[in-house]
Write a structure and sequence with these properties.
single chain, 331 residues, alpha/beta, Nucleotidyltransferase, domain 5, five-stranded mixed β-sheet, 42% helix, globular, binds 5'-O-[(R)-(carboxyoxy)(hydroxy)phosphoryl]adenosine, binds zinc ion
C-alpha cells in the first residue's frame, strides 16, 4: 500500500511516500530552524504560518522525488498530536482534505508512535517484542513494543525531556538554538570525566527519568566559575552529555532485558546523538542485547515514520473520520 505521510507537529513540515510501511520512496523535510533561531526556541504562531506556506510545496516535492502522481497514492496518514495545536492543525487538516478530495482512506497517527516506527522502516525490521527508548525535545519514555502500533509505557521523564535538557544546557553554555547538536559538537573536544555532574537514577529498578537536576547542576557550575575560560566549555558540554547519556543507556538496556526479549530500539531527535548511540551499543553488547537504531535522517521529525505507522493502522482497519481533531498533550 502506497501511503502519503504528513507531519507538522512542531517546526518541521514534512511529507513522505512509503510503500507497505517499510520502503521509503521519498521523504521531504522542510525545517523552520532558521526562522526560530533569533528567538532561541520555537515561536508557535510563526511555526503554524510557516507550515501553511510549506505544506503544499513539500507534498508536491515528495510526489516528484518518488516519481509518482497524486493518483498513485492509496491512503493518507497525518500526525494528530502531541505537539503545537496550531502547527498540527495545518498538516492534519491538509491531509484530511487531500484524502477526502480523492476518496482515499485517512488515518491519524500519534507522533510518538510515529517516532518508534522509524525503526521498522527497513528491509529487515527487528523482531518483536522489543523495548524502545523514545528521546525527543518533548518526550523521554521507555516502551515495550508488541507491534509497530502497540506500545506499553514502562516509564518516562518526571520533568524535562532529554532533548529539552540538551536545549536548556546549550542556552546555559551560550551555544544558541537548536541545542542538542551544538552540545554534541562541542563535547567532542571535551573530557566527559572533568566535571562529575549528578545522575538521577530515581528508583534504580524503575524506568522513570529526571533531567532537571543535571541541568541545574550545570547552571550552578557555570555560575560558580564565571571566570572559566572558553576552553573549559567543551568539558562542561562533554560532562553534561555523559551524565544524560549514562542514565538513558543504562535504563534502556535494563528495559530491553526485562521487557524486550533482549532487543532495544532507539527513536527520536536525541537518538541522533552519537555518544548516546555509542554508549547504548557498548552496554547492550556487554548485556547480550541487540540494538536497532534508525539512520540519523529518521531520528528527528519526518513524515516517513508517520506514513509507516499509518500503514500499520490502516492494515488493521484503522480509519479516522473527517471530524477527527488534533491534541496538544498526552493524557
Ligand atoms: O524528535 P525531534 O526532532 O522533535 C520532537 O519531537 O521533539 O527532537 C528534537 C530534539 C531537540 O531537543 C534537539 O536538541 C534534540 O532532539 N537533538 C539532539 C541531537 N539532535 C537533535 N540532542 C542531542 N544530540 C543531538 N545530536
Ligand atoms: Zn518528534
Amino acid at each position: 500500500m502506497m501511503v502519503l505521510g504528513i507531519e507538522s507537529s512542531c517546526d518541521e513540515t514534512a511529507a513522505a511516500i512509503v510503500l507497505d510501511g517499510r520502503k521509503i520512496l521519498s521523504s521531504v523535510v522542510w525545517s523552520q530552524t532558521a526562522l526560530h533561531r533569533p528567538y532561541g526556541g520555537v515561536v508557535p504562531e510563526l511555526a503554524s504560518r510557516s507550515h501553511v506556506e510549506a505544506v503544499a510545496p513539500v507534498l508536491r516535492e515528495a510526489l516528484s522525488q518518488a516519481g509518482l502522481a497524486a493518483r498513485d497514492v492509496e491512503a493518507v496518514a497525518a500526525t494528530n498530536g502531541p505537539g503545537l495545536v496550531g502547527s498540527l492543525l495545518v498538516g492534519f487538516s491538509f491531509g484530511k482534505a487531500w484524502a477526502f478530495a480523492r476518496n482515499l482512506p485517512f488515518v491519524a497517527v500519534n507522533h510518538l508512535v510515529g517516532h518508534v516506527n522509524a525503526v521498522f522502516l527497513s528491509d529487515d525490521p527487528p523482531p518483536l517484542p522489543l523495548a524502545a527508548l523514545l528521546v525527543s525535545g518533548g518526550h523521554t519514555a521507555l516502551y515495550r513494543v508488541d507491534s509497530p502500533i502497540a506500545l506499553t509505557l514502562l516509564g518516562q521523564t518526571l520533568d524535562d525531556a532529554a532533548g529539552e535538557a540538551f536545549d536548556k544546557a546549550a542556552k546555559i553554555l551560550g551555544l544558541g538554538y537548536p541545542g542538542g547538536i551544538a552540545i554534541e559538537r562541542l563535547a567532542r573536544e571535551g573530557d566527559p570525566r572533568r566535571i562529575r555532574f549528578p545522575r538521577s537514577w530515581l528508583d534504580r529498578d524503575a524506568f522513570d527519568f529526571s533531567f532537571s537536576g543535571v541541568k541545574t547542576a550545570l547552571l550552578r557550575h557555570v555560575q560558580a566559575h564565571p571566570e572559566a575560560a572558553q576552553d573549559e566549555l567543551p568539558h562542561a558540554a562533554a560532562s553534561f552529555q555523559e551524565a544524560v547519556v549514562d542514565v538513558l543507556a543504562e535504563k534502556s538496556v535494563a528495559a530491553a532485558r526485562g521487557y524486550g526479549q533482549n532487543r532495544l530500539a532507539l527513536a527520536g531527535g536525541v537518538a541522533a546523538n552519537s555518544r548516546l548511540r555509542e554508549k547504548v551499543t557498548e552496554l547492550a553488547a556487554k548485556a547480550g542485547v541487540s540494538v536497532f537504531i534508525p539512520p540519523v535522517s529518521l531520528c528527528g521529525d519526518n513524515a516517513a515514520m508517520i506514513a509507516a505507522a499509518g500503514f500499520h493502522h490502516l492494515s488493521q482497519g484503522g480509519r479516522s473520520p473527517l471530524a477527527a481533531d488534533v491534541f496538544s498533550r498526552v493524557g
